[in-house]
Design goal:
The structure is a single chain. This protein has 6 helices and 9 strands, in the order βββαβββαβααββαα. It has a 7-stranded mixed sheet with strand order 3-2-1-4-7-9-8, with helices on both faces. The chain has helices at 54-63, 89-96, 110-120, 124-133, 152-162, 170-184, and strands at 10-16, 26-35, 38-48, 73-77, 80-81, 85-86, 100-104, 138-140, 143-148. By secondary structure, it is of the alpha+beta class. The longest helix is centred in the C-terminal third of the chain and has 15 residues, at 170-184. β8 and β9 (143-148) form a beta hairpin.
Length: 191
């Protein structure tokens, strides 16, 4: 049985850094480690633009950190990083033995994503299958989620507790700001 949300206080928010449209190669991926609403640390790794290494890269980043022993939940800002490097959320849950929640600000246009993956992205069929396997996006507290290893009820309570400056949970907001500042010299955009 998944842990009850009242005990879920150590959360790692993961987001990728912005990159130029014509960028090829690796993209920084940041993990913001939180204890409650306090930033405890920052992790980093890299994922290949439109590649297939996001799941093992994120798992290794978290598992190899001193924060892993206390981690209780992983939040991802979207199911893909570095363009179309799709995270297998069930495999990430299994690799870390932690619940995983994908958070999106708005409901994605799945038909457009499917079309792009199947027509323009190498390995697109496999990546589309990962998105489908993650399940439908569910509305929760002004955002949409996909989840592995955690109930909808616990996800709702967790996000309500962590979203103090809008709808986005603080660990994801911080990861977004850090990733932007790291790459461009300053954070920008909505966080």
């Amino acid at each position: 049985m998944p842990p009850r949300v009242a005990r879920l206080s150590h959360v790692i928010g993961v987001d990728d850094a912005p990159f130029a449209r014509d960028h090829r190669g690796d993209v920084p991926v940041i993990g913001a480690v939180f204890a409650g609403l306090r930033l405890e640390g920052v992790l980093s790794t890299r994922a290949r633009r439109d590649g297939r290494n996001a799941t093992p890269a994120i798992a290794a980043m978290i598992r190899g950190s001193r924060f892993y022993a206390q981690a209780q939940v992983v939040l991802l800002q979207g199911i893909a990083v570095a363009g179309f490097n799709v995270v297998d959320i069930a495999a990430l849950r299994d690799a870390l033995a932690l619940p995983v929640v994908v958070v999106a600000r708005r409901l994605p246009d799945l038909e457009a994503i499917r079309g792009a993956l199947l027509s323009r992205v190498r390995g697109g069929r496999r990546k589309w299958a990962l998105i489908e396997r993650a399940g439908p996006m569910e509305p929760v507290g002004g955002v949409y989620v996909q989840r592995a290893g955690i109930s909808l009820e616990d996800t709702t309570a967790l996000l309500a507790r962590l979203a103090v400056h809008g709808h986005l949970p603080e660990p994801l907001r911080a990861a977004h700001l850090i990733a932007g500042g790291l790459t461009t010299g300053e954070s920008r955009g909505r966080a």
